Amino acid sequence: MSGTYSRASFRYQKPKLIYLATLFAVFAVLLGAAGIFGVGATPAQAQERRFSIGMVVATIADTDLLEQPAADGPVLKALPVNSRAIVVGGPFNDGWYWLDINGGVQGGRGYVQQRFLVIVDANYKPIPSATSTPAPTNTRVPQKPTNTPVPPATATATTAPVATDTPEPAPTEDVSVPNKPGDYTGLWLGELTVGGNVRVGPGLDQRILKSWWAGRRVLLYEAATDSRGGVWYRVSDPPEEPMWVHSSLIRKVEPVKFEGPRFRGRWVNVNVSQQIVTGYQDGTPVKVTLASTGKAPNLTELGVWKIYWRLPKQDMKGGNKASGDYYDLKDVPYPQYFHNSGEALHGTYWHDDFGRAHSHGCVNLSTPMSEWFYTWDKVGTIVYAHN
Prior knowledge:
The protein is mostly beta strands. The chain has helices at 16-33, 43-46, 367-376, and strands at 4-6, 11-13, 56-59, 63-66, 75-79, 84-92, 96-100, 109-113, 117-119, 188-192, 196-199, 208-212, 217-220, 222-225, 231-234, 244-246, 250-255, 266-271, 276-281, 284-290, 303-306, 309-310, 313-318, 327-333, 336-337, 344-348, 363-366, 382-386.
């Protein structure tokens, strides 16, 4: 041994030259990892961050768009490096994200693993195609959670359109919706006709919160006109954060159906055909929101039920990996069980496609809305589920 070990001091003393060389080597490695010597972060290191729903992302290598969040899932389409997409769900299982690659056009949604994605922001730089690498195909992970949809069979595009706003005013006959918070008279169900930006206020000068895809359902809670004469729709309701979309990106689908005084006191109405949940006080709607109910073959049970058990959060696991309906979801917020098959109202962090059936029978709500209902109702509150 070239150095000496002293029990009294618990020190290991190396010769000075070796000691300095070792320090320099460690220092060089640290600097290289920080990018000072031009090494920079590796793609794997860059992908340690989680992506939020509505973010625009790009692929950093050639990879595949898969039908399920598993490496052995059916391939929908080959994605070359720098393909862009909007995050519409996830993460699932081992870091899989559900992506929309062509603005909601049929066949444009599937799964890509996190390590092949990077956020498209002001610092984004496309990867030179010569450095791209094919995606590995030998990594097996659990099958998709059943609270997500199975994408269509064939993808048709490799890049997502850039989400935009249209500054021209919408026709005046299209703005007959409520004009103040809390007023649900004349509420309309709408749908985006093209991919577009969601902003925190009614105007092109307002911060972009996220992007949504063509076909995304919305409730038109309020109409407002900006300084340029453009008409905007508020598509969220407290306690959700403010979200506004330009009216030219949205078509009206149908008026929201209300039930009137079907039950006394506080009760919850689940309209499966419209995918809308309403909190009623006698016959007056006090909260209206989009939901995602059960998707075939696991449809939400119709009938008059009562909340019999609830808790602030709960892990949910079930299904079968072999049959492809396995799910393992941590800390699902505010579950309120109303049917003995395990169906519940609860918050949802793994998708943002409310207004479409997605679940294994439960009634998916946004997390802020699930908290509102959890605070508002109680064990014994009626839940009326119907078409």
